Amino acid sequence: MDRARSLTALAVVALIFSRGTMAHGNHNMEKIQDGEAMSADPIDSILWIHILLQMLAFGIIFPTGMVLGIVRNRWHVPLQVTGVVIAVVAYFLGHLHKGRAFAKNIHAAFSNSLMLMLAVQVAFGIYLKFHITKGIHGKIRKVAIVGHGVVGKIIPVVSWVQMLFGGITALGFCREDHLGQCLAHFIMGSAFIGYGIILTIIMLVGQVWIKRTGRSQEFFDSALIAAWGCVNTFTEHRWGGAWVGNDIQHTTMGVIWWAAGLTGVWMSRKRDGTPKRNFIPGFVILITGWAMSAHPQHLPLSTMVHTVFGYTLMAAGVTRIIEVAFVLKDKHTISEAGDANSFQYIPPFLLYASGFLFMGATEEQMTLISDAGITHVSYVLVIYSFAFLMFLFVNMLLHLYAVNAVPPVPSKDTEREPRLPRINGHARQSDSRQIRDAEEFELEGLMSEDDVPESPSTLGKNNETRVE
């Protein structure tokens, strides 16, 4: 009976998403003038609802549900089901709108891939929920557990890309000669934001993982900088052709990145092989900001925005160096309790702001803002507001993870059970216990009795744990 219900549920999911895929297509194409990316009509209310619902589902609900799934919280499944319902409704609304019509675009094409990924994730979840473990299903279940976790973590990243595609499509940007510049701004801007998120995660809940690797954080940062520099060195100029525009500056920036990255990797270990902090990643951020602040631009508004972006990135680099050298004094954490100093929040936030500023400084965006009579001050303040909201959301998710990942340890000195100091968001306990908790990825309710590990575990203990 369970197998029949499972197959029926999977068939329904496949039918819903396949019908959605068949329905996807361009409409009202006759309203678009030749050579234009969209019609001159305004965005109607249905399309606005589509935008808001998809931002709610993919931007807020699914990332929150992902965190609840990692900590095996009972609210994971209800929240994700709600997100799926909202996403499916919004998906069909995207094909029912009137008003502005769009030519063939990347947002429409990529939406089917994202919804297919969501369908796979739902199928994994339904299959695991029925606890079919006999025969070949035992092996399938192990694959499904891993697949459910991996896809669940990829979806927020892919959703970010799709939301960027949506904004670009809605404004008709990044076509023909503007494509290369758009790619540079959105990829690099997203990289800065991503780096800021990684720094926030490591600062608040990732120190156990860093300690387990036996390497300093600068080793990983420098290795990534070196790899990115190699890519920039050979892709920012069409070799064999004439040097135009900012080719030389972009290429030399790539050179200093891989040169500095290799230096940072070498300096990330002491003579005895133990990990050592260094200033290299912070300095690379600093000099990159200086270079970007001096980029020649076509509009005065663009020059001012790029200048603010460069100064923000320089500030991120300077504060990162100060954090490592003077606040942490080359240690991984400021205290054994793992509490983050208020100064440590500055470099990640400035990276968020730098990323948003750079993504908002393309030629077409600057032309649109300039024609609207908006000053660079107003525009920068709005961009910083987005950075604060993103910074807030990431910190909220990390707090949600920290307070639900490990139950508080009872105090030995008193009869009460106060909340003890936490190590990067975890209750104080041995590193090996924290590592086991971090590695137990299966979601609550998805493991059968045969799947329970022999080692001590926190599985099933979050039913009483509150979500703060």
Précis, in short:
The chain is mainly α.
What does this structure look like?
With 468 residues, this protein is mostly helical. Helices cover 65% and strands 1% of the residues. It has a two-stranded antiparallel ribbon with strand order 1-2. A hairpin with a 2-residue loop joins β1 (422-423) and β2 (426-427). α1 (2-23) packs antiparallel against α4, α2 packs antiparallel against α5 (137-171) and α6 (179-205) runs antiparallel to α12. The longest helix has 35 residues, at 137-171. The two termini are 38 Å apart. The model is unreliable at 9-25, 408-430, 438-446 and 452-465 (pLDDT under 50).
User: Runs with pLDDT <50, length 5+?
Assistant: 9-25, 408-430, 438-446, 452-465
Beta-strand segment tally: 2
Sheet bearing the most strands, described?
2 strands, antiparallel
Oligomer: single chain
Report the average pLDDT across residues: 83
SSE topology string: HHHHHHHHHHHHHHEEH
Please supply descriptive tags for the structure shown above.
468 residues; mainly alpha; two-stranded antiparallel ribbon
Chain-wise SSE layout:
Blueprint lengths: L1 H22 L21 H26 L5 H18 L12 H24 L7 H35 L7 H27 L1 H7 L3 H19 L11 H20 L13 H14 L6 H28 L18 H14 L3 H9 L4 H30 L16 E2 L2 E2 L3 H9 L29
Antiparallel strand pairs: 1-2
